[in-house]
Amino acid sequence: MLPLNLAVAFQVLDNIKNGQLRSCLAMGFEEKDLQTLIDPQSMVALVNSPVPWFKVVVDGTIVHRLLAHARNMNEEEIIRRAISLGASGTMITELFGLPPKEIAVRRDILGIPSRKGRPPKIGPEQEAILWEHWVKLTKEQGTNLRDMRSVLEVAMLMTEREPTQNLAMVWSIIQDWIAQDLV
Can you give the pLDDT at residue 136? Predict the structure, then answer.
């Protein structure tokens, strides 16, 4: 018995039971087959067949749409998380290409007030703590410094570990480290 034979047989029986005969026809069955499949002996013969009696066909167009949708959902979650952690509008525009009006709307939806001006500078003690986080997290995450989204993930984790800082401040210090070739 092949596991896929069993899975397809159960799907066919479920479709027949729920009156979804068109689904069975779309799978390649003929109407006369459906009448025969109601008989348990016929279904047992299909389930216990040592050879597959169907073909699995991948619809590439649908697969690509589903994967693109999944990437978009992941990107939306990253944007929401970054804004919630205090990302600047400039950061979001550079990393995700969102226009300032869209960022403002998202901030409003999340109930996050927009800040004006530059983020405050991080003091030397706090920078040392952030550096320790940076070294540890970049190793754990396998961060690619040429991939700004990979760097963003570490910056968000650092911000979550140091709630007195916001993401714009942490991002700024990381960009300074990168510019100085310290990382």
Answer: 94
**Residue 46: what pLDDT?**
86
Q: Is residue 143 within 8 Å of residue 150, measured between CB atoms? A: yes
8 A C-beta contact, residue 16 and residue 8: no
Determine the Cα–Cα distance for residues 155 and 170; give it in Å rounded to an integer: 6
Domain boundaries, the chain: 3-47, 60-110, 124-179
Contact 146, 119 (CB under 8 A): no
Low-confidence ranges of the chain (pLDDT < 50): none
- What Cα–Cα distance (Å) separates residue 137 from each residue in 95, 99, 141, 173, 177? 20, 30, 6, 15, 15
Q: The whole model's pTM is what?
A: 0.62
Of 92, 1, 75, 103, nearest in space to 43 by CA: 1
